[in-house]
Design goal:
It is a single chain. The protein is α+β, with helices and mostly antiparallel strands. 22% of the residues lie in helices and 24% in strands. The chain has six helices and nine strands, in the order βαβββαααβαββαββ. Strand 3 and strand 4 form a beta hairpin. The longest helix has 9 residues. It is globular, with a radius of gyration of 19 Å. The two termini are 37 Å apart.
């Protein structure tokens, strides 16, 4: 195998249209998104599902994507520890989110649970850095302490899940970790 002649890699964004997105990614960061689109996410670096970031600079521009780099040069791209685990995909997804409306509620399984029940996928831990937020903006971080499975299911069936979700107010500069 050839060795990878390293240079600082940049990647093309992958834009995701969502029902809750808006246009702030264009306004704040100059992203090239149409005004009428509801762009909820700009994936800055990704190797997730069918989406793999395409190299945007240097000798590999538009020829290679992140998945191919990880497959061809695992130690150089992933580091020796992840390469030794036989990982051939980049393990992080870095993105900007424009939450112009409420996002969907998501589950964050750990690696063990996800590998067993989610087609061998990795778990989903997230870290959020709040760049901009309107006064009163909040994130949902789990359920209200003491909520049982039965209560959760009942509220879900009644369309009242909001009653058992724990909201935490956020401001610019906050960092929130979701295991």
């Amino acid at each position: 195998m050839n060795t990878f002649e390293a240079y600082p890699l940049r990647f093309k964004e992958i834009f995701k249209q969502t029902v809750w997105g808006g246009s702030r990614l264009r306004d704040l960061f100059g992203k090239n998104i149409p005004r009428q689109n509801k762009t909820g996410e700009s994936w800055e670096i990704a190797d997730h599902g069918e989406d793999s970031s395409i190299v945007a600079n240097g000798r590999l521009v538009e020829k290679w994507n992140l998945r191919r780099l990880c497959e061809q040069y695992p130690a150089e791209i992933l580091g020796t520890a992840l390469a030794a685990e036989c990982r051939d995909r980049f393990p992080l997804l870095v993105k900007y989110i424009d939450a112009n409306d409420d996002l969907s509620v998501q589950v964050h399984p750990d690696d063990d649970y996800a590998r067993k029940r989610e087609n061998g996928e990795s778990g989903k831990a997230e870290a959020w850095y709040i760049i901009e937020a309107q006064p009163g903006a909040s994130l949902v971080l789990g359920s209200v302490e003491g909520t049982t499975k039965d209560e959760f299911r009942e509220l879900l069936e009644k369309g009242q899940l909001e009653k058992c979700l724990r909201r935490v107010e956020v401001r610019p500069g906050d960092i929130v970790y979701l295991p």
